[in-house]
Amino acid sequence: MIALSLGNIVGVMIYQRHKKIMDALELKNLTVRPDVQGRYIASFLLRNAEIEGAAEFKSSHILCDAKKHNLAIRFFLGKHHYKVVGDEDLYGLKSGSDLVYRKSISRFSGC
Predict the structure, then answer these.
(1) Contact indicator for 61, 102 with CB cutoff of 8 Å
(2) Residue 12 in contact with residue 2, Cβ under 8 Å?
(3) Using CA of residue 93, residue 43, residue 77, residue 102, what is the dihedral sign?
(4) Angle at the Cα of 79 (from 62 to 40), degrees rounded to 5?
(5) What confidence tens digit (pLDDT) does each residue in 21-53 have?
(6) b or e along 4-40 (b: 16 or more beta carbons within 10 Å of the residue's beta carbon)?
(7) Residues 24, 13, 83, 96: is their CA dihedral positive or negative?
(8) Where exactly are the structural domains of the chain?
(9) How far apart are CA 31 and CA 42, in angstroms?
(10) What's the pTM?
(11) What are phi and psi of 35, to 5 degrees?
(12) Residue 52: CB atoms within 10 Å
């Protein structure tokens, strides 16, 4: 999913069905161009991925992960009602602990 401004790509969201948990939507990557940050583009992309992805994969919840020391993403996901459900080195790279976030989806309210 992409966000455009004046015909230019300003943000990207990648999501998929979780590989092991079939009723989960997995958010893989959310990127916003630095010169347009602070304009709610990340929130726009996240919300649209939640709606479109959940409908496409008939998901009951959404999962994503980020480095534990990334305070900006912790605040961002918390603001969007994601809860921390795990803390581990997911990728075994010894680059720090990863937090796993989860959000339940209400199919009747659009997330």
Answers:
(1) yes
(2) yes
(3) negative
(4) 95
(5) 999 999 999 999 999 999 999 999 999 999 999
(6) eeeeeebbebebebbeeeeebbbbeebebeeeeeeee
(7) positive
(8) 2-104
(9) 7
(10) 0.88
(11) -75, -5
(12) 14
Please report where in the chains the tokens 């990728």 appear, as a residue: 91
Mean pLDDT of the chain: 92
- Ramachandran area for residue 88 (φ above 0: left; ψ -120 to 50: alpha; else beta): beta
**pLDDT tens, residue by residue, 61-74:** 999 999 999 999 99
Contact 77, 42 (CB under 8 A): no
Whole-number Å distance between alpha carbons of 20 and 13: 21
Q: Strands across the sheet with 98-104, in order?
A: 2-5, 8-17, 24-32, 61-67, 98-104, 83-88
Top-level class of domain 2-104: alpha beta
